[in-house]
Design brief:
The protein has three helices and six strands. It has 136 residues and is an alpha/beta fold. It has a domain of 34 residues. A two-stranded antiparallel sheet has the order 1-3. It has a two-stranded parallel ribbon with strand order 2-4. Strand 5, helix 3 and strand 6 form a beta-alpha-beta unit.
Length: 136
């Protein structure tokens, strides 16, 4: 009996929040922000939404399966549920990269977009474009 269904990229919701961050009693509460330096000019990407939609519309998503989700009830041992406790910035960054960067990089690969999400040092030399962690 099939108990899971394929999730194609066009059906992944950007509105679905990550599961709650689990923290232990000794978690960090201090501010760890740092001064940022940019090597090039920053400017608005006014056509970003239209560019993303155009790329998505021209990609044949039905031939790409990025993940599966349970058809009925998500079991307690599912990777869809957060199991790791985060106590400091390193843990939160790891969770962010695993849950956001991994999905975005897979979607870019499926759409033949030369783009990866991750640490600058790990991606800058291997690709023409790299997105490091984005802060809003």
């Amino acid at each position: 009996m099939v108990t899971s269904i394929a999730e194609h990229p066009e059906k992944l919701s950007d509105q679905e929040p990550l599961s709650n961050l689990l923290v232990g009693p000794g978690h960090t509460i201090s501010d760890a922000t740092h001064q940022k330096y940019f090597l090039g000019p920053l400017k608005p990407w006014t056509s970003f939404d239209a560019d993303v939609r155009a790329r998505s519309d021209t990609t044949h998503w039905s031939s790409h399966v990025l993940l599966f989700r349970h058809r009925y009830q998500t079991p307690a041992a599912s990777l869809k549920i957060e199991h790791v406790r985060c106590g400091d910035e390193t843990g939160v960054q790891g969770r962010f990269v695993a849950n956001v960067g991994q999905v975005l990089s897979a979607a870019c690969a499926a759409s033949n977009t030369d783009l990866r999400f991750g640490d600058f040092k790990a991606t800058a030399l291997s690709l023409s474009r790299a997105i490091t962690n984005i802060e809003c």
